[in-house]
Amino acid sequence: MHVIFPAGPDDAQALAQVHVTSWRETYRGLLPDSFLDRMSVPVNARRFSKSLVTPSEHEITLAAADRHGLVGYLAGGPSRTRVAGEAEVTTLYVLRPHQGYDLGRRLLTAAARVFADQGAKSLMISVLRDNIPARGFYEHLGGEADAPRKEPGPGGLMYEVSYRWADIGVLTR
């Protein structure tokens, strides 16, 4: 059984652990090993702590936990492209042993409801072009892919694909 709840400052360390672990699970072979190996839980915990103490307007972080602790999270806010009425999920990670239990969809649905309550009409998320499992997940949930685009990232330029739900209600029903 998993519960989803708004993350608070006391969750920063656990969120950082999920972040670093999930990046290493997800991006091995897609990002340089040297970058993944250098990722730091303490550095990420400070970043989470700061964003949870003083979030930007309409910024959310939802955590997912089982009886043993945090196993996933989602963060997002207004679209970086400043499209009026569009929210953006900037991160969505579930630790590998907890995937396949509908937790990613539940996090995305919960976030879509919060964003819709804040006035968002559409939602987007970006993913590495070569992250085929994540792309399949977003397509299964009805996300429509934009053309791949080059973005700077660890180790140089990489390709990302944005998925959009023009009607956020598709995710909240």
TrEMBL record:
GO molecular function: acyltransferase activity, transferring groups other than amino-acyl groups
Claim: Lyase is one of the keywords in the record: no
SUPFAM superfamilies from the UniProt entry: Acyl-CoA N-acyltransferases (Nat)
UniProtKB keywords: Acyltransferase, Transferase
InterPro entries: Acyl_CoA_acyltransferase (IPR016181), Bact_Acetyltransf (IPR050832), GNAT_dom (IPR000182)
Domain of life: Bacteria
Record domain N-acetyltransferase: where: 2-164
PANTHER family hit by this protein: ACETYLTRANSFERASE (PTHR43877:SF1), AMINOALKYLPHOSPHONATE N-ACETYLTRANSFERASE-RELATED-RELATED (PTHR43877)
Entry protein name: GNAT family N-acetyltransferase
Lineage: Bacteria, Pseudomonadati, Pseudomonadota, Alphaproteobacteria, Caulobacterales
